[in-house]
Hints:
Blueprint: H1 4-23, H2 35-66, H3 69-98, H4 102-133
Helix pairs in contact: 1-2, 1-4, 2-3, 3-4
Amino acid sequence: MPDNVALFAIIILLLPMAYFLLAAPAFLLVRLDIPPVALLLRSMFSGYFLTVAIAGVVGTMALAVTGRLLLTAGIGLIAAFAALSRRWFLRRMDARLSESGADAARQLRRLHWGGMLSNAVQVAAVVACIPYIAVAPQSV
């Protein structure tokens, strides 16, 4: 039987990840040396990491009650990674935002690409776990 709590935890975790996966590439179409655009990118990263951390904590607590320790640890690691990544990314983004010039915009673009890659890897890992959680009942 499918584990409804595990599916709930995965879906809650995938919602902010999917949003970021769709929203972040739009910033590839604009220049990041424009301060309002760069601040909007920073806000999106901040909100993304905070939302994934919160969703991860909620999912971890829900799964801890069900006793699925391996999945609990996996979602807990994603929540911890999001919390630590938020701090790391925002420090570097703030440093680039305080600078000016083409080099600062280039560094900001690298952070943007790194954030999108990080999210894509996490989405792939979470989606890869779905078949192990949502098993269809077998006919006898």
